[in-house]
Amino acid sequence: MSFINVASVDEIEPGTGKEVSVEGTDIVVLRSDEGDFHAMAKECPHAGVSMVDGIIEDGCVECVAHGAQFDLETGQPLSPAYDPLKIYPVQIVDGFIAVDLKA
Ligand code: FES
Fold this sequence. Notes:
The protein is an all-beta fold.
């Protein structure tokens, strides 16, 4: 595992997200209303819209463009027409959000 700091915890308010480019990989970090962080590929596998406005609810993330939902642990689509969304492990260390892009 190789976690890389991508943002400080204070940069992302609950219920919002941030696009980050890390070593040439574009990702999105979302913070749920409850305050937990989730990292994923920036582009939704359905039609490439950014997941930055994604809605986190009941263990899944929903793309706001057309409503595709993905499991937050596995990235598997909950609607069968879509490919999986890449999900990255997240750690919080000393106030920073660290993401493992190699996972
Ligand atoms: S682009 Fe995400 S559901 Fe269509």
